[in-house]
Write a structure and sequence with these properties.
Radius of gyration: 20 Å
Strand order of the largest sheet: 3-4-5-6-7-8-9-10
Number of helices: 14
Distance between the termini: 41 Å
Helix content: 40-55%
Structural class: alpha/beta
Order of helices and strands: EEEHEHHEHEHHEHEHEHEHHHHH
Strand content: 5-15%
Largest sheet: 8 strands, parallel, barrel
Number of domains: 2
Length: about 325
């Protein structure tokens, strides 16, 4: 499978863009375990144009994680085109347009999935960005705004006509948010539409190696995108790749190895958010650190500690810990179930 001139192996797996999740520390871990492409966190076009520090930091890309797509969101064509030009200077492989984020602060202001209620504006933005940059431009969107407006089959053709290089589809409407089950039937209908010639990437509820394989085999998509199932579990991509090869669902890592990866991720987050290359990690091990707070979402979601009896109090302590020494003492104290 190819997106423009970027080649991917058979049955490629992509890491979905997720706010406060897909920073470089996490992307690099997922890359180690076999993910084929990663996306940045959502980047506001308006904030990028204003040179907001937290936003420009999201443009950081390391060679080890390529290929990388920078994902932008906004509601005005001129601003999105200008932001795309700025993002292109970070040298990603792809510029991706977010027309799928359902949260109120984005969709409610006419950006993200909010553009599913203004298709002419969505197409205007897409065309403007395609014309503004010399990189492949892709789109991630949803089935439609609500159950009565599942427009993705026609919308896919319209977006393709704007010149995009690939389309990722989350199998829910905006109204569903992340509730209910993702409906892959319409994703398959888009893929099987003879008028479509760009790659179609399926997304939504891909939580196991078996489900990833089924999505390729049953719906014919060109790539599968994994989102929430990877939080606190970057090795899921390796488990999926192994299943594709052998047909067996195996745990790649032992319990202790999984704990070590979690700790490594926390340290990487601390290095990313709290210290520079000249600071020794040991020197800050007793300090309250932003990287630890940032990692709590992964600790809360990870399946590593699932099934451990009477774990509730330990989990609460883990999520309240504010220093590396305290947090690692708690993690190390947890024994294999």
């Amino acid at each position: 499978m190819k997106i423009s001139n970027i080649e991917f192996p058979d049955k490629p797996l992509f890491l979905a863009p997720m706010e406060d999740v897909t920073d470089p520390a996490f992307r690099l871990l997922c890359k180690r375990f076999g993910v084929d492409m990663v996306y940045t966190e959502f980047i506001s076009a308006d904030a990028l144009i204003r040179n907001v520090n937290r936003t420009t930091q999201k443009l950081t890309i390391y060679d080890e994680e390529r290929p990388v797509a920078i994902q932008l969101y906004g509601r005005e064509a001129d601003a999105m085109a200008e932001a795309a030009i700025i993002a292109a200077e970070a040298n990603p492989e792809i510029i991706d347009l977010n027309f799928g984020c359902p949260v109120k602060k984005v969709a409610g202001k006419g950006a993200g999935a909010g553009l599913l209620r203004d298709i002419p504006k969505m197409l205007e933005i897409t065309s403007a960005v395609v014309k503004a940059v010399n990189l492949p431009v892709t789109v991630k969107t949803r089935l439609g705004w609500d159950e009565d407006n599942k427009i993705i089959v026609d919308l896919a053709e319209q977006l393709q006509d704007c010149g995009i290089a690939a389309l990722a589809i989350h199998g829910r409407t905006r109204s569903q948010m992340y509730k209910g089950e993702a409906d892959w039937t319409l994703i398959g209908e888009v893929k099987n539409n003879q008028r479509m010639h760009i790659p179609i990437i399926g997304n939504g509820d891909v939580t196991t190696p078996e489900r990833a394989a089924e999505c390729f085999d049953k719906y014919g998509v060109d790539a599968v995108m994994v989102g929430r199932a990877a939080i606190g579990r970057p090795w899921i991509f390796g488990e999926m790749k192994e299943y594709f090869k052998t047909g067996e669902s195996l745990n790649l890592l032992s319990f202790d190895e999984q704990k070590s990866i979690l700790k490594e991720h926390i340290i990487s987050s601390v290095k990313w958010l709290d210290i520079d290359d000249t600071t020794d990690i040991e020197s800050v091990s007793n300090q309250r650190l932003k990287g630890i707070i940032h990692s709590r979402r992964h600790l809360a979601a990870t399946p590593v500690f699932k099934g451990i009896p009477n774990f509730k109090e330990t989990r609460i302590a883990m999520l309240r810990a504010e220093t590396l020494n305290e947090l690692f003492r708690i993690i190390d104290s947890v024994e294999v179930p």
